[in-house]
Amino acid sequence: MSRMTLFAAALAVSIPAAALAHHGWSSYDETKPITVTGKLQSVAWTNPHGSATMRWQGKQWHVVLAPVARMEARGLSSAMIDKGQTVTLTGYARKDGTAEMRIERIKAGGKTVELR
């Protein structure tokens, strides 16, 4: 086998494993969707996915958004979810009680955007 073939095979095997390890969506309780409205305290418009923070139920919550390219393709801009903007988020909280939610839908600037 050539070096290039070995490299390609190693890359092909490692990408799915890395993607699976990164997402870990099974740690969120998809049987109990939650919807919250409030002001974003911070926003990171970054990859592999955006993130934000919001105060809810007396806690500082980490909010896991979609990848930037997906949000932009569906009509959500960074200006619509900038720090201080009031948004409505629908998603799932972590099963272990950590103050973190994975967002499926966001309403911002009068527009509702599906993120998943």
Explain this structure.
The chain is an alpha+beta fold and 116 residues long. It has one domain: Beta Barrel (OB fold (Dihydrolipoamide Acetyltransferase, E2P)). Helices cover 23% and strands 38% of the residues. It has 2 helices and 6 strands; from the N terminus they run H-E-E-E-H-E-E-E. The protein has a 5-stranded mixed beta barrel with strand order 1-2-3-5-4. A hairpin with a 6-residue loop joins strand 1 (34-44) and strand 2 (51-56). It is globular.
Per CATH, the superfamily is: Nucleic acid-binding proteins
In the CATH scheme, what's the topology name?
Answer: OB fold (Dihydrolipoamide Acetyltransferase, E2P)
Q: Order of SSEs, N→C?
A: HEEEHEEE
Low-confidence stretches: 4-22
- Mind telling me the C-alpha Rg? 17 Å
How many strands appear in the DSSP assignment?
A: 6
Number of domains: 1
The averaged pLDDT comes out at 85
Which structural class do the helices and strands define? alpha+beta
User: What is the distance, rounded to the nearest whole angstrom, between the alpha carbons of the first and last residues?
Assistant: 40 Å
Q: Taking strands numbered 1, 2, ... along the chain, how are they ordered across the largest sheet? A: 1-2-3-5-4
What is the second-level CATH architecture? Beta Barrel
Number of helices: 2
Shape: globular
